[in-house]
Each structure stands twice: as C-alpha cells, then as structure tokens.
Amino acid sequence: MEYVSTRGSAPPLDFEGATLAGLASDGGLYVPREWPRFTEAEIAAMAGLPYAELAARVMEPFVGDCLSPERLRELTREAYGRFSHTAVTPLVQLDQRHWLLELFHGPTLAFKDVALQLLGLLFEEFLGRSGRNLTIVGATSGDTGSAAIDAVAGRDNVTIFMLHPKGRVSDVQRRQMTTVLAPNVHNLAIEGSFDDAQAMVKRMFGDTAMTGRFAIGAVNSINWARLMAQVVYYFASALQLGAPRREIAFSVPTGNFGDVFAGYVASQMGLPVARLIVATNVNDILHRAISSGNYSAGTVTATAAPSMDIQVSSNFERLLFDLGGRDGAALAAQMAGFEANKAMQLTNAQREGASALFSSARADAAEMSGAIRWAWENCGELIDPHTACGLHAAVASDLDLAVPIVTLATAHPAKFRDPVERATGNRPALPARIGDLFQREERCSDLLGDYSAVADYVASHATPKA
User: Active site residue: 112, 166, 342, 465, which one?
Assistant: First the structure.
C-alpha cells in the first residue's frame, strides 16, 4: 500500500514511512493511494471475531508489506489486551433504535486509546528496526494527550511533547497527562486555544531548523495510522447490528473530523453505512461546512465539551481531497486560501459528495445538558458532554426508523464530572484503576502562546536524529 499527500507534491511513502512522518512534507495529510474494498461475503465472515482479530483483518490491506499478518495480529492483541472490557468497544442499547458504542474502556478512558495503544507499539516496532529516535510533537484539546502519553511513556527511542491550551481542559484530562512522570514525557501548557497549539505543531513540521535536527512525528489524527485503527470499531458495531445485510447510521461527536472520517473510510471499504451524522457543539465550523458549504473559522468558544472546542478541523482536508477528485494541486490552492483568510466555500463536487453520506447537527449548552439528562432519566446511562452532542444529533435525525443509529460514546463521564452532575444530580466516580489520580504528583511547563518559545523548549529537551 502506497500513501500520497492530499496536497500532491510530497513523495509517496509506504505504511511505515507514513506512520513515522505524520504530516507530509508539503503540509498535506497522507491517505492511501486507493481505498481497499471488502466484498459482502468477506465482511460477513468477520462476524463474531474477537476485537483484536477483527482489527488485524480490517487493517491488513493498509499495512502492506511493512508488517506480516502474524506480527500485526500480535500487535493488536497486545494493544487491546489493556482494555477493561473484553469486547474492547461494547455496544449498549438505549431504546429500539439508538445505541451507544462505548469507546472509553482503554487506560485513559477515551476513544483515543483505541488507536493510540496500537500507534505506540507501531512506533516502537518501526524505530527498533533502525535504532532511530523520534520526537513526537502533538496538540490536544483534552483526550489525545493523555492517550498518547500513556501509549509511549517509557518507550525507547521516543520523546513526546504534548501541548494543551492552559485552563481549557478538564481537571481529570489535565492530570491524566501531567501525572505521567516518565523522563521521555513533556507536558506544555500553552496560552491560547487548541487551534493555536495545533497551528504551532503544524508549523514545526515545516520548520527546517527543527526537522533538520530532529525526526518529528505526530500522534494527532493527522497521523494516518491513528485513523486506520479507528476504522475498526465501525466494522465491529455494524457487524453486531446486522451488517453487511443491514445498513447502520453513526452519530459522531467531532471537532477535528478524524473520528467521523474513519467512518467514511469504513464506508469506502464496503461497510453499509446509511449516514454519518457530524455532531458539533457551538464551535460549529463542520456543521456549517456540511449543511451550507461554508467552511469559515470563527472564534473558539469554551464549552463543557472541550475536545470539540475547535475551529480548524485538520482531517476535513482528507475528505475534501477525496471528494474533489484527488487533485492535490487544486486542494493545495484551496487550503492555502483557507489558511490565509480562515474562510472558504466548498466546491460543488465537494458539497454534493458530502451530502451523499453526511449530515450534521449542532448542540448548544442547553441541548447538550438535555441529552445528558435524557440518557440518565430514560436509559439509566451517564454520558459525557461530547457523547451528548452526538446523542442530541442522533435523536434529531430524520432517518428511516428501521435504520439503527449508533452514537459514539467518546469519553467516560467521570472525565467531565461537573457538567454531568449539573445535568443529572449524579457525580460519576473515576474507575478504580485511576481512583488515586488526584493524589498523584503533577509535572508541567507553562509557556506563552508563541511558536519560538515552544520550538526552543523542544530543541533543548529532544534527542537529535540518530
């Protein structure tokens, strides 16, 4: 399998190269040159497989010759052996048509674990072959940071620098990052928003003064391997609900568009996806883009769903590339215009292509709280604010009642105790395995929202290329 950049001018890479590179050298994102596709019979044959076996089966076409099928299965078994539920991503029924896909049974209680536990093993596998050093630089609006840190803490040949917007993540999210005291882990609290932190990370990938000295890698969903791993749970849940003989819809709370793009990939691979509902909070750039073609960034508004407090959705570029005929030069020009003006209109081809599979909905603070309360009062389920945005969108959907809708439950409610308690009167407890989180020592460096301050910090603490 060969990977190409969405902006057309970076050299193609194999799976190992794309995994270690993260962002392409032309500023684009790597995607497979073509989508592998399973037949209906091949999908049906996946029913009943343990999650790790299903993961290896779904991901094998993307890996190519970089890992043997046997080695890939070994890695998936190790990655998902740390989850607290045997099903890894269990389904929970809410009513006759609505389901929750619980993605928070990994070590840091968020859906990012599903991909990042595997990504950490892939980094170790590929770096161990050559003895190279990798400097991971990432930005987090809450959950990516803790999941990535857990996945690589203490691993050889890897140093991680994770930026988060100071004061804009929950106390649980912050402590899950800052209480990891491994010497290869550096937490950086940045003045500003997640978008500011993400822009610094992207700038570092294009900064030759940094890339000349350090091998810069990514754990954000700009890294293809992370998205690849997220495709699996769409297959897992759809198979349980009758696929491939039955269509399934998914409602996906999203800010950076990675999780819902994984659903798009699943549909391109042959999974019968009836609809992908893009659920946003009031930071609704994706809702506006899907519903009206207006992809224009506004001011980030802080909400009770901080992982969605984003106005620049990096992975949306992958969808625009695919829907625009995979014309890298045209997309590079389109994205250059957006980066200059923070606004653009989707082309007719992009709008029509998106409307064939995607719809969208926006939840304000009252609607978010209302969905949390509905799930508790009607189903006895506590859900976090991000999941609530997805459930709000699912319940409001105009889909045929015969189509089951799976809402992705992206985080454990205990990560967002205050808004859950305000909505339900119940304060969710942390699972026993992290019950001492608030007694652990924290370590974090506060930096100005300035690229040079971040670059200087990374340069003074990272290990140069081997």
Answer: 112
